[in-house]
Design brief:
two-stranded antiparallel ribbon; 6 strands; Wax_synthase; transmembrane; membrane
Amino acid sequence: MLSLKHQLIWGASEAFRTIVPEPQHRIPIKWSTAVYPVLCYAPFVFLAYLTRRPDTYTIRLLMLPSVITSILVAAYRFTWTIPELNVYNWGQCLFAAVAIAKSLEFALNKEGMLKVGESRPGVKKGKAKDTLNGTVNGYAIESAGHPYVATWFYDAMEVAHTLRGLQWKFGQGVHIPKHTRPLERSAFLKATLDSFIKNFLVLDFLESLLKLFPGVGEPLGGSMFYPELAPVARYTVSTIIHLLTGSALLSGFGMVYDLITLIAVGLMDGSPLSWPPVMENPWISESMHEFWAKRWHQLLRQTFLVFGGYPGKWLAGNVGMLFGAFIASGLFHECAMYSMGRGFDHFPTLFFAMQGPILIIERLWRRFTGKKVGGWPGRLWVYFDMFILAQPMINAWHRRGLGGGLVIPPILSPTRLIVLPLVKSILHLIQS
């Protein structure tokens, strides 16, 4: 007869596998099943609604377990089975992790989610009663809702989707890049559309090049460190693949952000002031502190604070907060990639965990020398971290199919429809 301990372990394992089944037991996503993972997010939206309503703390706490369970079911119980779409499993689990972090914040914040200048959800305090909710780069902004969307639903969707927390209490202190586009609506939309097209073309070109590399560009994946090459050639090729991957990720971030901006401002009547740039030219960073705190995107800052930063601070103060946030970042990326059915590879976790000690080294340098890390030595330091130390992380992703995933369909790809066939024809003529 099993002991109570073994029965509890068995029961916990069975419960976990009910929510997160083994890959072979998951439900394929197709037209007939696609609605179910979407419906699983209904409790999350309702929780977002409650966090903007006063006196809902108890019900939010009671809802939290079911909300997290439904998000995990949406992310891990349903799966994309076409090999080229396997990378979408990673994407939907990254999204789920963000939603879980938000759910924890929605439920555990007794006061609810407040905007700048509010004493209670929707209630401004003191002198702020007649002022707008916060400023961004010197411009006052306030969401005005949408004439064709119910106010309660707009409010819930706004708090559910805000990541950097512009005009929100939790977003105070987050670095926001200055506006680089005209703030007049029509000019802003035109500039955003131009940026979207540019990012689309660059991403298409870089993705098409990545798919030319054997293994790396295939759905099942492969190492970018080709063992048949001599060491110098091997690491030259891996560095090229690494640069192409990083550049593609930057273009992809920009393209998706531009598309969402066009929808938010063009269709949902949002303010251009609410959509500053997502990044601030990370290529010119002169320290890793500048890179992570200012020039890299801050979209997931709050997610990592909820999962690791706040618990780390409780355990070990500010240093614990720093280490906890970066460890959470590594686990965030890796636990989501588990959904691709290719197991765990903790090189990504290790890379992000290393960023804590690296930032401590920069602080010690400033303390003992009196100077910040900066200038061309600082930029070389950043490039060493991002182009050398990060290669095992990118390789771990490519071995599991990142480069072979479908991002831009071939039928919509100018590079694969025009550029590559043209280059092949020219090379064929030269050889002839």
